[in-house]
Amino acid sequence: MTSDDVDVLIAGAGPTGLLLANELQLAGVGALVLERLPERTGQSKALGLQPRTAEILQLRGWLEPVLDRALATIPGGHFAGMPLDYSVFDTPFPYQLGIPQARVEECLENRLTDHGVPLLHGHELTDLAQDDEGVTATVTGPDRTRRLRARYLVGADGGRSTVRHLLGMPFPGRDGRLSMVVADVVVEGGPAAGTEWRLPSLEPDEKGLSFLLPLDGGVHRLLFGGPEQQRLERSAPVTEDEVRAALFAHHGDRVRLRELRWASRFTDASRQAERYRDGRVLLAGDAAHIHLPAGGQGLNLGMQDAFNLGWKLAAQLHGWAPERLLDSYHAERHPVGAMVLENTRAQGVLSSPDPDARALRATVAGLLTVPEANRRIAGMISGLDIRYPMPGSPAHPLLGARLPGIELPTGRGLLLTSGQQPGPVAALAPWTDRVDHTAAALGAPDTRAVLVRPDGYVCWVGRDDTERPDAALRAWFGAPARHHRS
Question: Could you tell me the end-to-end alpha-carbon distance of the chain, in angstroms, rounded to an integer?
């Protein structure tokens, strides 16, 4: 057994762990990613990036390879299969990007490889112990077991997270009450097999619900759930006969199964970690929250967790983080996760074949034809309505919200000014850039300057040339005396 040192050890090489590793690399922090699987499975898994996730990739200049691998753009979003309009938002992405999760992972992993960030497949974290200076992790690989010493450890290792279990972190919520199947299949048949991407129709009937979507190379994504699935154990293998029966129930003999590539059962279990931080160990993605995969939110929620955490963790390691900056990760992301758990539980009810639930669905569908109601739910599902609390700042429409249309490829903060610049603040914030813009580009007519965090959210607004961002700079970027490393 040997010992090594690293700044941040990341357990899990899914989209959450890979995005976090990329953020840390950009900030000059040494990271090591562990993945228990010996190689990528190629399973499609999640199938879309919501507008806010596309925005954060664009902020860093990482979106182009994802766009190259995307299969489709899907207009709008959906709430339990009921359409949502994304065109009402100020975003360059008023749609979902249709792309299998495996391709997103490939793009993120390729960038890590290009920058020399190590990723160890076939290595599993089996134990951990933390102290005031760091975390000691026991890692078992193909040929040896070793101890890794890290200043911080991030568990991005999925819904059955080993890291969360080793912490003994409470994971309150409820077990699943309905069961469904998701599968990658090769089918043959007529138009019912589907030829282009579309929003799902998840209105159930007495047979349950089913959705068939074309992927690539003749492979389709099949989702189904009916009475038979409710009688089977979660651990029961998904058989070809079960898939054939589901296809026949919903498509008759027009669509026939040729090959079952991959299949998995899932439930509407809904749980969230009590805390996202325990000392020098943090949780992100499915390790921090599990829920029904409704509305296409899970992949996006985890990637946005990582985006919020990355710059804060780097600031802590570089020595310029103000007090409680790292704690703000839990304070900001836990409520966002709780809201996703709430809306996915609601979508589960609206997808039930129960007659009363179907009556409720009809009522909600009617409400979603009202533009204000549709916008409210669309903002939630797309991630575009997230607004973080900014203590100590006066209210302003931009404050705490994302600022669309900017790029932050260096991962630094940004002071955007219009008119006279707000005083000599450059010496106070060597980790921010300053750019002059027109007042219109700042998003509000009464705005002369805004301070944007590295994750694209506005943390200070100046209404006139006399206001200075000094307090906000100290609150989010620390004081110069604490800036030890660039």
Answer: 34
What is the distance between the alpha carbons of residues 305 and 193, in angstroms, rounded to a whole number?
Answer: 36
417 Cβ partners below 8 Å, 6+ apart?
Answer: 434, 435, 436, 437, 448, 449
Supply 355's token pair. Answer: 């007659």
pLDDT confidence of residue 426: 45
Amino acid at 86: Y
* CA pair distance 242, 249, nearest whole angstrom: 11
Q: Of 239, 266, 293, which closes a domain?
A: 266
Measured N-to-C along each axis, helices 355-367 and 327-350 cross at an angle, to the nearest 10 degrees, of: 120
Count of the separate structural domains present in the chain: 3
* DSSP 8-state secondary structure symbol assigned to residue 482: G
- 38's CB contacts (< 8 A; 6+ apart) are 121, 122, 142
**How wide is the angle at C-alpha 46 spanned by C-alphas 243 and 111, nearest 5°?**
135
Find tokens 């992949």 and name the residue: 299
473-484 pLDDT, tens digit per residue, is: 888 988 543 433
Of 432, 442, 446, the closest CA to residue 403 belongs to 442
SS3 (DSSP) at 163: helix
Task: Return the exposure string of 235-255: e unless at least 16 CB atoms fall within 10 Å of the residue's CB, then b.
Answer: eeebeeebbeebbebbbeeeb
> How does pLDDT run across 254-289, given as a tens digit for each residue?
899 999 999 999 999 999 999 999 999 999 999 999
Question: Could you give the 3-state DSSP secondary structure of residue 18?
Answer: helix
Per DSSP, what are the bridge partners of residue 482? none
Last residue of a domain, one of 248, 266, 284: 266
Q: Which helix (H) or strand (E) holds 344?
A: helix 327-350
**Which two three-digit tokens encode residue 218?**
């003749």
pLDDT in tens, 84-128: 999 999 999 999 999 999 999 999 999 999 999 999 999 999 999
CATH of the domain at 241: 3.30.70.2450
Backbone angles phi, psi at 270, to 5 degrees: -140, 110
Length of the chain: 486
CA distance 169 to 161: 10
Let me know: does 315 contact 475? Beta carbons within 8 Å.
no
**Exposed, middle or buried: residue 85 (CB in 10 Å: 0-12, 13-18, 19+)?**
middle
